[in-house]
What we know:
Blueprint: E1 3-5, E2 18-26, E3 29-34, E4 38-42, E5 57-63, E6 66-72, H1 73-76, E7 88-94, E8 97-103, E9 105-113, H2 126-129, E10 132-138, E11 141-146, H3 148-157
Parallel strand pairs: 1-9, 3-11, 6-8
Antiparallel strand pairs: 2-3, 2-9, 4-7, 5-6, 7-8, 10-11
Amino acid sequence: MSVLEHKLPDDQKTASDMIQYVTVVIGGQLFGLPISQVHDVFVPESVTRVPMSAPEVAGVLNLRGRIVTAINMRRRLHLPPLEEGQMMAVGIEYKQESYGLVIDTVGEVLTLPSASAEPNPSNLDRRWAEISGGVHRLDGQLMVILDVDRLLGAMFTEPMAAA
């Protein structure tokens, strides 16, 4: 992965003013995960479906000896399935559990000033706003910041409907 830096004068750059994001694309939209939350980037293989799990749960997989719950981000965002191509996943931890967010593609690592983060615009797609911790406006593109607490917290606190 290459690192891109948003250009700031050297006197304005400090480590506390900058944040790094691993960028991912889901359904053509650019998302950013704070790099501090990302443990792995991998190609999911042999995902085992879990009966009666939430629709977003693609299943579980073994990642270097750890059982990881695979979350299909396209299903989570109510997008159609990806036609063809190799799936990618980003490994994260949430409440001492390992998760793999199954995404379309992994991009680069961006280093951006934390001050350039903005609250969600009022016209942001509702599906994205539910899991967003804000946005960064990049050259001609909007990067939605994935908020892991909002993403996974809502999934696992909502009561499951009886079948």
